[in-house]
Amino acid sequence: MIQHWNRYTRDDHEVWEILFTRQLASLQDKACHEYLDCMNRSALKAGEVPDFSVLSPHLRAATSWEVEVVKGIIPVTDFMELLASRRFCSSTWLRQRHQLDYLEEPDMFHDIFGHIPLFYHEEYADFACRFGQLGLRWKHDATALALLERLYWFTIEFGLIREAGGVRIYGAGLLSSFGETNYVMSNAQVKRHEFSVRAVLSMPFRNDAIQTDYFVLESWPQLWECLAETEAFLQDVAAGKIARESLRLHEQKGSVEMAAPEAEIAG
Ligand SMILES: [Fe+2]
């Protein structure tokens, strides 16, 4: 699968510029400083839709991660396989001008603007790779995979982290959404929980409703270090030491969106 960058229209490039400029301005006092620093180090820019033939080699040279184009939503285990081999999958379709603020499925702006910069951050990138390796070790256990999706959801997609200036965003689902960025930083309904493996793995998520619960890391090492505790938790569940009923598995709705379907690009 390749991107076919020359098929993007002038309108696509303008939509990217509107999204990029608006969101980066909004994130200046909301995103964690590592994200903003990494954005500066990346090959991403406002003026045009990113060309993966430039973006991916730039990322690989800096961190050994690559962008992998996928068609359609891929199985969780395939996604784990990609992460374990330091590849992050992206769609290539971009929302249209009338969809700036609402999407049912993640597009390239989410996959690239939201996710890619933090792969320049070593501890974050190591976490993602080790998360994938952990997923592969548990790929035959559906309960374990559902719990690992929670960890991914409440960190890589919707994670918050405490910095000297206050709580900041590092989750891509927030970083790429103008509305949700503002919502999570200012809405009184938002519940910010202290990050703990037990709390995260016991929290069902829904991908069809606005998020109300978020988890706040105290530091990046906490993210990396949580994987051993996560695996111990999975072992306890498998051994029956943690009651499955306590995990509220039936309340989980949908799966982590591993990638969005690739739409036909006009041109
Ligand atoms: Fe995502």
| Beta-strand content estimate | 5-15%
Tell me which ligands are bound.
fe (ii) ion
Shape type: globular
Low-confidence stretches: 258-267
> What structural class results from the helix and strand content?
alpha/beta
CA distance, first residue to last residue: 18 Å
The CATH C-level class name: Mainly Alpha
- Main beta-sheet annotation: 4 strands, mixed
| Radius of gyration over all CA atoms, rounded | 18 Å
Short description:
With 267 residues, the protein is an alpha/beta fold. The chain has helices spanning 10-27, 33-41, 52-63, 76-84, 108-115, 122-137, 142-157, 172-175, 178-186, 197-201, 220-238, and strands at 66-69, 87-90, 160-163, 166-169, 191-194, 213-217. Helix 10 (197-201) links the parallel strand 5 and strand 6 (213-217).
Question: How is the secondary structure organized here?
Answer:
Blueprint lengths: L9 H18 L5 H9 L10 H12 L2 E4 L6 H9 L2 E4 L17 H8 L6 H16 L4 H16 L2 E4 L2 E4 L2 H4 L2 H9 L4 E4 L2 H5 L11 E5 L2 H19 L29
Parallel strand pairs: 1-2, 3-6, 5-6
Antiparallel strand pairs: 3-4
Structure description:
It is a single chain. This protein is 47% helix and 9% strand. Strand 5 (191-194), helix 10 and strand 6 form a beta-alpha-beta unit. It is globular. The longest helix is centred in the last third of the chain and has 19 residues, at 220-238. Helix 6 (122-137) runs parallel beside helix 11 (220-238) and helix 7 packs antiparallel against helix 11 (220-238). The strands form 2 sheets. The chain has a 4-stranded mixed β-sheet. A two-stranded parallel sheet has the order 1-2. It has helices at residues 10-27, 33-41, 52-63, 76-84, 108-115, 122-137, 142-157, 172-175, 178-186, 197-201, 220-238, and strands at residues 66-69, 87-90, 160-163, 166-169, 191-194, 213-217. It contains 11 helices and 6 strands. With 267 residues, it is an alpha/beta fold. It has one domain (5-251): Aromatic amino acid hydroxylase (Phenylalanine Hydroxylase, Orthogonal Bundle), CATH 1.10.800.10. Fe (ii) ion (FE2) binds next to helix 5 and helix 8.
